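Thread: quick sanity check before group meeting

JM: Hey all, I'm pulling together slides for Thursday and realized we never actually wrote out the predicted structure for the chain we discussed last week. Dropping the sequence here so it's in one place. If anyone has concerns about the input, flag it before I start.
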Amino acid sequence: MKKSHRKEVIIARIIFAAILLVLIGLIVFAASFISKKFGDKDDKDSQTKIESQVSQGSEESQQTDSEETQGNQSTHTPGTQGEDSEIETTENSEAENSESENLGSESSEAENSGSENSESQSSESEEQPSTSEEQPAESESQDSEPQGEESYVWVTSVNVKFRTAPNTTSEVIIGLNQGTVVQMVSVENGWAKVIYDGHTGYIRADLLKKKSVTNTAGDAITSGETGTDENVNASQGGTATGSNTSSQSGTTAGKVVVIDPGHQRKGDSTKEANGPGSSTMKARVTGGTTGWTTGVPEYELTLEIGLMLKTELESRGYTVYMTRSTHDVNISNKERAQYATTVNADIAVRLHGNGVENTSVSGALTLSPSSSNPYISDLAESSMKLSKCVLSAYCNATGMKNKGCQTSDTMTGINWSTVPVTILEMGYMTNSSDDTNMQDDAYQKKMVQGIADGIDDYFGR
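JM (edit): ok, ran it. Output follows.
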């Protein structure tokens, strides 16, 4: 009996110890669970706060990146104009071979909308208007006060750089397209301080025109609104880009000429309509041909002659605008033609160098729309008159063989024009004699003299 009772006591103690161990385990488990729960909450709150800060910083970074890349069309790019008004392309002109516009045709078959001369190496390559990019001359330090409650100006060129400081080495906030309206704060030393999309920055004053628009009700001001245009630099005593700075006289007074130096450094095979409402799509722009003897690219020749011609015409009293003043741009045929409309040009003269497989072919010719052009037949007569005047005077001045005035209705840069237009093929870069002559300084002066004389003849000077 005593032995049995002792056995029961031992069993009871074991059971009690087991229960005690279980309770201790439960207490430890509960403590661990509670600690982990609150610890995770703290960690989660901390992580949420960190993620919020990172997200905010990322959004700000993305906003900055978006501003710097807008309108770019990549952006840009060396060259004097390239510093504040240009567009860069990564396309290569070789991709456009099947779509390039033929400027080397030697017969009137160039009028047929489906024809592309397989021998021609010089295709129509046009570039989007860009104004002169020389560093603005410093004027007296003088801030202009906004007129009315708010003074607005609009951008006159493409991809104009909106910068953080009034110099060409400062950071570009965004590239603004032609027609963009900004609020002007002041103008000093050739730079305009403006406000755009809530940001304050600086734009070359000669790339802006003033709009006499007062906004007192907070209404949005768009580029389509009317107002009196005035070059911002001119209003501050500077020189308006593309304007004539010499005294105007005779029949040239008030005449506006657009010079279009053909081609550019890199082509863009992106397609655009061949004319208003046309279903035919052609490459935006090509790089042009190259001198077979000199190795000089066509885009370099056309710009060199174009800049010389601008100077000559301004000395004769014309107002002159250039579609480009650097090689590193991306300007389409359509945009080039439309630029002449934008600046209210009286005529557009497009400069090109020709090229064919037959290296014995030489001479100069012009291209203009025919009377059956489906888009601008009303400009055929005036364009042909311009062509005849320019080609005749050019050949007389240079001694270049006159290959005649041809018509073409396949050129995008012609079909989108709203002013009399001519394409002057100045000579064959595939011909040794023409190519060499067109790189001679004395001969280039004759080329410029002849073109300017032809323009004078057109206006009856």
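AS: nice. DSSP finds eight helices and 18 strands in the chain. The chain has two domains: 97-130+243-458, 152-235.
JM: adding both to the slides.
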